Amino acid sequence: MFEKLHKNAGLIFPALATIIALALSGTLNPYLAFVATSWVIFGLLGLSLDVAWGRGGLLSLAQTAFYGLGGYFGAVIAINLAPSSGMTLVWALPSAAVFGALIAVALGYVIFYARMGELQSTILSYTFTLLLWSVAQSFKLDVGEARIGGDNGLSNIPGIILGFGSEAKKIGPNEAFATVVVVTAAVYFFTRWLMRSNFGKIVDCIRIDIEKTELLGYDIRKYQLLNFAYSGAVAGLSGALFALWANYLNPSIFSVQEALLVPIYVLVGGLGTLAGPFLGALIIGGLSFWLGGGVAGGQTTLILGTTLILLVMFLQNGFLGALDTLWKKFLADPNDAARSAGAVKIDTEVLDSILEEAAAQAGPAKNLSTDEAFKRFGGVIPVNKVSLDFASGRPYSLIGPNGAGKSSFLKTCVGIYRPEGGKILLDKDDITKMAIFERVHKGMGVKNQKPQVFGENTVMENLWIAAFARTRDTVQADKTATRILWMLGMEEQKAVQASALSHGQQQWLDIGMVLCLAPRVVLLDEPAAGMTNEETRELSLLVRTLAKHTTVVVVEHDMEFVRTLEGHVTVLHQGEFFAEGDIETLRANDAVLDIYLGRGEHV
């Protein structure tokens, strides 16, 4: 029962809060109802940031820009249409949401498609808001009956009108409070549904590990842009609500103080919780209202600032995050299964059937080849005109001393590194300039040197998100993920968080995610790292089985593991091809021993 209540807390408690707010709306003092309406609107603005930051991973300081622009746009629409048609919400809210989304798309396109870092993205969003604040102070424009007057702002904004026709009147503060609560609740519950949908799951994975999400075949920039656009729509809608509530707008809506208050709402309430920004706005607004009543003796700003600093310092996940942590102490810990897990055992019969089905669905194995692939980092050349060919039937191993360019070669093949010269071919397709996710769609599957799993998600959720990337079908993704889970022998760990797994188990989970993609070419970078001897033997069996159905390339330092693969071995040295053959022949090659032992002319 407690587990079910915990799982649905984001639905149950906001619903109760909505019911209580509506029940109190008729009994509140009109002035308090008027002020409390602004707290709800600020919470909705905070929700827009939580979508972009808490779920999408981008600390956007442009939310007040979308908020202000949405407010101005929605107000202009309302001023011109309300006198004849009434019902300001019908005109102002949708138009403001669309306008906010469009502005967010324009800014987001620059941020995401230019591949900006987190800091640069935050600075650009903040700069955009400051520019708007500067422009708004002198910007003047007449749009029909609406007059934007620069510093004088925009006045004569009709309030919240629910009736239709020219005779419809503005509603009072108590009714306005109830109306804003209903609109806000509708947006919150839709946002919660969206963030729990397949779209939201992908957005969460992008936040946790952006590179891994693209390696699964997702067009991450498209999802980032759509998520940011939605956050802009929510901000624009909240701006229109604010304009109708206040009946007046001025450039201060774009000010630095307003921009920095929004992250505080989110942090105080709980980052990534969606409901947290409403609690944060209520706490901050309520404290300001109470302290402003004279109880603080003129020290309102000092007391409020100190309180906020203490809250952020000691409740690092905000109020709702702290409550969630406390709640979990009374629930059974599913991660206990990770501590009692034995070694992973591969079911080769299941693996063979999975690979045969994959070949039937995705086609036969593909050949991977490079033609003088070249990659430079300043004066360092980790991949120096390497030409290699890989085909199915037997495993291929890349070996060489540290710094030989093995991992760099694999990353060049998959697109993590863009080569300055040469070609990468998948069968006859030139994939040299393709994005990572496009190469995955062509049939590549990659496990990097460090295991990349979504630590906040369970084992099953990790496998599911990988399977869904290929199938785009919820039911088929369930089936594929379940089969891979059983093939790995990890069914008892399905509900365990990936971060609770040992290093070796995370390696297996990462390999399982690659298999969910049904790749035609599999690239494995040091897959045996962190595994026990027993697990390494299982891994060798898996790689040899894979090679019967796909093209497999393994980078590995463990020579004994490479020997058990019984495949073709290529030695790289200083970014160049050095030697090739079977492992026993290479072990007897003095030139190869020279570069490994640091002796002789080849070093």
UniProtKB/TrEMBL annotation:
Subcellular location: Cell membrane
Domain ABC transporter: 368-599
GO molecular function terms attached to this record: ATP binding; ATP hydrolysis activity; branched-chain amino acid transmembrane transporter activity
Family matches, as CDD domains: TM_PBP1_LivM_like
Keyword ATP-binding: yes
Residues spanning the membrane: 33-53, 65-83, 89-112, 119-136, 176-194, 228-248, 260-290, 302-323
Broad class of where this protein is predominantly found: membrane
Pfam families xref list: ABC_tran, BPD_transp_2
InterPro entries per UniProt: AAA+_ATPase (IPR003593), ABC_AA/LPS_Transport (IPR051120), ABC_transp_permease (IPR001851), ABC_transporter-like_ATP-bd (IPR003439), LivM-like (IPR043428), P-loop_NTPase (IPR027417)
Membrane topology: Multi-pass membrane protein
Signal peptide (from-to): none
Gene Ontology cellular component list: plasma membrane
Record keywords, A-Z: ATP-binding, Cell membrane, Membrane, Nucleotide-binding, Transmembrane, Transmembrane helix, Transport
Protein name as annotated: Amino acid/amide ABC transporter membrane protein 2
Organism: Roseovarius mucosus DSM 17069
